[in-house]
Amino acid sequence: MTGCRSALVLCYTSGYHFWPISEPQTNTGTPLVLYVSLLQCKSSTVVVFFSDCSLLFSLFSEDDAKLGARRLARVLQKLGFKVRFSAFKVVNVLAVCSMPFGIQLVDFTIKNRPIASYEPELHPAATYRIKHIKATVQVFSTGSITVTGPNVQNVATAVEQIYPLLFECRKPKALCK
């Protein structure tokens, strides 16, 4: 979309695919957040900024993200906006998985001190940063981990790298009576 801030307001008031989650505030530059049904069986959240940039969330693969972005551009074209699909790139991937055991966060942090940090007063998870693949792992005591990285391959590498470290610091299973 080009230029006009009121065009975003027109977009969500006249578009059949858009359900606003938050109201845009044109005087402060707050982005418009929309819940959009772009794919037949999946819905996603789109954040449209006044600087003509848009972000897509809640998609499960890079191919889905590209298809969703193309469909968003097409829907906006049908509404009469001058839109072209260009400069598509995936900049962040978030993965969540659960280990079959709990984690002793204090032991995990002590054993991996230069890379891992744990501040229970600030956040309930230990943070493990892997700089050479640019990935960050949040480790929770329940065994749940969230991995953030620039692409799917780096996220998978981070999970493979951290699993042995987590296995060393697993909580002992409670004895059954």
UniProtKB/TrEMBL annotation:
Taxonomy, superkingdom: Eukaryota
Transcription is among the record's keywords: yes
GO molecular function: DNA binding
Protein's name according to its UniProt entry: TBP-like 1
Family the UniProt entry places it in: Belongs to the TBP family.
GO biological process: DNA-templated transcription initiation
Keywords assigned by UniProt, alphabetized: DNA-binding, Transcription
Keyword DNA-binding: yes
Pfam families reported for this sequence: TBP
Gene Ontology cellular component terms for the protein in this record: nucleus
Annotated InterPro entries: TBP, TBP_dom_sf
